[in-house]
Amino acid sequence: MFTVGAVKYGERTWALKCSNLDSIRSSLKKERPTRHNHFHPQDQAGDHKDEEFVLRRAHSLFHICKRAIVDSSVDGDSEYRDTTEMLGKIDMIWGLMEMELSLMYDILYTKAAVIHTWFGYCLRVISPLAIVAPLLLFQFSSKVGHSRVDIAITYVLLCSALFMETTSLLNAVGSTWAFAFLCTTSWSWLRYEALCTARWDRLRRAVASLHRLIKATTGGGSSYRSERWTGTRTLGQYNMLHFCTRRDNNLASPLLGRLAKMVGLGEWWNRKHYSGSIEISELVKEHTIKHMARLYKKGRWNALGVLRKKWGQEALEQNKSFPELEEFLGVEFQEGVIIWHIATDVFLIKSERARVEGASGRVEAIKLMSNYMVFLLVERPYMLPGLAQNRLYQRTCENLVEMRAAPNHRKWDIWEVLRSLFSLRDDPDSNSKAVDIEKLAKILYDKNPSFSIDAPRLSYVTRLARRLVEKEADGTTDSLQLVLEVWTDILVYAGNKCSRESHAKKLNSGGEFTTILWLMAEHLFQASLEGP
């Protein structure tokens, strides 16, 4: 018992060593990719079969994710082309990316890297046997002089340890990590006996059934689900006009917010209170996938898989009616996000086409992406490329508040004041003060651009919003589609240019939408290396 315990504690230390990026990079030199033809699980129905198929495909292509996360080169492979065929099935390709990120999470933040090795499996086979030995020795030994309570406690401890180690063994051999291990083993007879004869499939189904039974018995979910990565289903939302129409309103500012400012947590409160999250729409998924596929088809990535052009530049060059708009992309990435974010809100309020019934899907997608990029800028700037622009963000907010303060005199309803005083969250999806936002947007639109000395970024906002509305009004350009394309390009650029370390660290707290796009771009890049 002592020996097994000491070895397992040593295994934890070894797992910590194996879970850093340098160790992953070193292991890639001697590791064989999990390439196989055992994608179709048998005797499963519906969603379970589809999910199992995608999960095995994720293991087959996981070496792309590992090489990408450590910035290592990877050879082209015919399997990559099969993956590009899945681009038409949005749910499937999205599920594939989620599962690959789940596998990467296992490598970085669990003991998967050491459990699913010859040493790890042997240890889990030996551990139950090592516990059975003292259990039998205690059973057949004399218990004279020992109290019944001590004897009962000893049996409980030994049986519990045996149960835990047996469960650990079943989970290890029934995991799809064991499937990947069997695919890469040099013992062809073992691979044949386990996979070709479907013995491992039967074991996996038995373990899955046991999971479902335990969950149903304990009141959990009745279905067994594989380790799908679920941290990328929503987009964080933060809107600057929404925030600035509520900021510094002493009459109705939340009481908890006032307390936070008193203890020096004012900025933290503003980030949390005025932000929210919303489920990713299918249009956003579809549009980003098509946009990336088009970029690769046109050769817009260099030999290292990095975007050649500036954020938003590709979208502007596609539309010849807006060659002059490149000056509004900003010198730094985050500066461009701020300018386009505010100008987008102003444009959507002034645009006639945005209010047409058939444009609601595009308008929603634009708002989701615009608010998401500002959410990253405010809450998670480490997930964005380029220099941080917190000072510029704060100064722009101050300019908006000053601009709003003069003309914005209103009478407050007592119930509205009470709701605001005790509110815990006021996210951008709230329409409680949409009128205030529209007023501020109209002030910006009507502002004379000569105020650039006091608020230079807002002068860009005014000029950009006017250009978009004017081009739409003369009927020559679909400005709404252009704005959608620009935000899609900005989103893809953010994922491509974000550091690998930031993508890896964010997996520990749920992942990001841009991480999905980054990994998808890596797959498309490898497919492009294979050629037509």
Mass-distribution shape: elongated
User: What is the count of structural domains?
Assistant: 2
Total helical segments = 26
What oligomeric state do these chains adopt?
single chain
Question: Could you tell me the radius of gyration in angstroms?
Answer: 28 Å
Total number of β-strand segments?
2
Amount of beta strand: under 5%
Helix percentage: 55-70%
- End-to-end Cα distance, whole Å, is 58 Å
Q: Unreliable segments (pLDDT under 50, ≥5 consecutive)?
A: 221-228
The secondary-structure class comes to mainly alpha
Order of helices and strands: HHHHHHHHHHHHEHHHEHHHHHHHHHHH
Mean pLDDT: 80
Q: Strand sequence of the main sheet, in spatial order?
A: 1-2
Largest sheet: 2 strands, antiparallel
Sum up the structure in keywords:
532 residues, 26 helices, two-stranded antiparallel sheet, mainly alpha
Provide an overview of this structure:
This is DUF4220 domain-containing protein. InterPro entries: DUF4220, DUF594. The chain has about 525 residues and is mostly helical. Helix content is about 65%, strand content about 0%. The chain folds into two domains: about 1-215, no CATH class; about 275-410 and about 430-495, no CATH class. The chain has helices at about 1-20, 20-30, 45-60, 60-70, 80-85, 90-110, 110-115, 120-140, 150-175, 175-185, 190-195, 200-215, 240-245, 255-260, 265-275, 280-295, 315-320, 335-350, 360-380, 390-405, 415-420, 435-445, 455-475, 480-495, 500-505, 515-530; strands at about 235-240, 275-280. The chain has a two-stranded antiparallel ribbon with strand order 1-2. The protein is elongated and about 95 Å long.
